[in-house]
Amino acid sequence: MISPIPGPLAGLKIFDLTRVLAGPSCVQILGDLGADVIKVERPKHGDDTRKFGPPFIKNTEGDETSESGYYLSANRNKRSITLDLTKPEGQLLARQIIAKCDILVENFKVGNLAKYGLSYDDLRAEFPDLVYCSITGFGQTGPMATQPGYDFMAQGIGGLMSITGEKDRDPQRVGVPIADLTAGLWAAISINAALRHREITGEGQQVDISLLDTQISTLSIQGLNYLTSGEVPGLLGNAHPNIVPYQVFPTSDGNIIISIGNDAQFVRFCTFIGHFELSSDEKFKTNEMRVRNRDELTNILNNITHEKTSEYWLVGLEDIKIACGPINRIDQAFENPQVQSREMEIEMRHPATGNKPIKLIGSPIKMSQTPVSYRRPPPMLGEHTEEILSEFLELSPDACFELRKKGII
């Protein structure tokens, strides 16, 4: 649903030099909040994720286009311009557009943009109020700064994989690129903080976001468990490191999640399942003792929950206010009435499909006065090149034609 109210970031212009996921997801958040995003892509190639498929959306004839689901996930509310930054004329055009922007976001390897005169140090004197956000694998400093970084590497190096997976099995990465996505979130938060600083002082600054830093930050309770105790956490599967029972349990026809948040809930739970004696057993009476005797209690409960259906447990536990839920497939998740009510699946018309609607995931940001808006579908490669050059630099169609002949755009 397109909001008639300008977003809270309306009027801000972003020069977007990002590709793949961490950077684009950050900028999409800012675009949803109203910013005007100029996505800069390589002529003829564009963002690598355009080819990260299948699946690809299909045109009116049913043929696959070059627009992948991966690319569509993080590039809404942007305009695409193709620009060859390896050529001096392309670099000049970039600087001229940057002069009219408030924010620059990039995720090049450390030092690479300096080759084109577009690093923070190259631009800070000329554009002192520019908020310049760099997203890299390992940050702008430190012994690993110049190494390429990917989500999978961050999950591995940052310890997340060592606590993800079943006990006595191989460690696993999270099912989505969580290091990329959290880096994008932290970048969006930091950019907004930098904008507030600029509002007060008139000064821009560089925001330095690293996948590894953000991955370490998301270790959260597991990281603090280690720092507090000195004991290295291991694989617990679906179990919670500090609360028991709080995990997946088998039923006669599947699996469900049961989450017992405190001792009073455990008493209610034990009463409902017909085993009140468990709640008075010294080994299980408190959460601390349940954590210490995790395996014994889990084995007992597994045998109990396995006796009845998922529906029996879900209905009964919900009635006594015990947190529980199914383990949905992704199709079931999107069919959930709560998900539909919150408009987490949206449709936008796309030129590659002949303006037929495509489905996208909606923004989770809900604001009463300045809601997000869905103004532009993820752009096709270079779709807005001449529009942007005309709007920002007042270049004529003939001038754009000459730039295209030279391969600059």
What topology, given as strand order, has the largest sheet?
A: 5-2-1-6-7-8
CATH A-level architecture of the largest domain: 3-Layer(aba) Sandwich
By DSSP, the count of extended strands is: 13
What's the tally of helices? 17
Tell the overall outline.
elongated
Q: How many whole angstroms does the radius of gyration measure?
A: 25 Å
| Name of the CATH class of the largest domain | Alpha Beta
| Uncertain regions spanning at least 5 consecutive residues | none
CATH superfamily annotation of the largest domain: Crotonobetainyl-coa:carnitine coa-transferase, domain 1
Percentage beta strand: 15-25%
**Domains (count):** 2
The biggest sheet amounts to: 6 strands, parallel
CATH-defined fold name of the largest domain: Rossmann fold
Structural class of the secondary structure composition? alpha/beta
Q: Give the rounded overall mean pLDDT.
A: 95
Distance between the termini: 33 Å
| Element order: H for helix, E for strand | EHEEEHEHEHEHHEHHEEHHHHHEHHEEHH
Produce a short descriptive summary.
With 409 residues, this protein is of the alpha/beta class. The protein is built from 17 helices and 13 strands. 37% of the residues lie in helices and 16% in strands.
Give an account of the 3D structure.
- There is one protein chain.
- A hairpin with a 2-residue loop joins strand 9 (246-251) and strand 10 (254-259).
- The strands form four sheets. The protein has a six-stranded parallel β-sheet. A three-stranded antiparallel β-sheet has the order 9-10-11.
- Helix content is 37%, strand content 16%.
- Helix 1 packs across helix 6 and helix 6 crosses helix 7.
- It has helices spanning 22-32, 69-72, 88-98, 120-123, 151-157, 178-201, 211-217, 220-229, 263-272, 277-280, 287-292, 294-305, 310-319, 330-335, 337-341, 385-393, 397-406, and strands at residues 13-17, 36-41, 56-58, 64-68, 79-82, 103-106, 131-136, 205-210, 246-251, 254-259, 323-326, 345-349, 357-361.
- The protein has two domains: 13-218 and 343-406, 3-Layer(aba) Sandwich (Rossmann fold); 246-328, 2-Layer Sandwich (formyl-coa transferase, domain 3).
